[in-house]
Amino acid sequence: MVQTVASTKAGALVSTFRDEYTKAFRWMLLARTLDDKFAGLYRAGKIHGGVFLGRGQEALSVSVGLALRKGDVFAPLIRDQAGRLAFGEPILDAVRTYLGSTLGPMRGRDGNIHRGRPREGLLPMISHLGAMIAVVNGILFARRLRNISGVVGAASIGDGGTSTGSFHEAINLAAVEKLPLVLIVANNQYAYSTPTSRQFACRDLVDKAIGYGVDSHTVDGTDLSACLEVVGEAVKCAREGHGPQMVVARLLRLCGHGEHDVADYVDPELKQSPVGRDCLKVAEEHLLQQGWADARTVELWRSEMVQKAEDAVATVQREPVPDPYEEDWRALSSQRLLEAREERPG
Amino acid sequence: MSITYLEAIREAQARALAEDPRVFIYGQDVGAFGGAFKATKNLAEEFPGRVIDSPISEDAIIGLAIGAAIDGMRPIVEMQFADFSAVGFNQVINQAATLYWRTRVPCPITIRLPAGGTSGSGPFHSQNMEAIYAHYPGLVVMTPATVEDAYHMLLEAVAIDDPVIFCEHKYLYYHLKADKLPGDAMPTGKARIAREGRDLTIVAYSAMVHEALAVAEELASEGTEIEVVDLRSVKPLDTDTVMASVARTGRLLCVGEAWPWGGVTAEVMARVAGEGFGLLDAPPQRLNAKDTPVPYHPNLWAAHRPTARSIATAARNVLRL
Question: At the top level of CATH, which class does the domain B192-320 belong to?
Answer without folding.
Answer: alpha beta
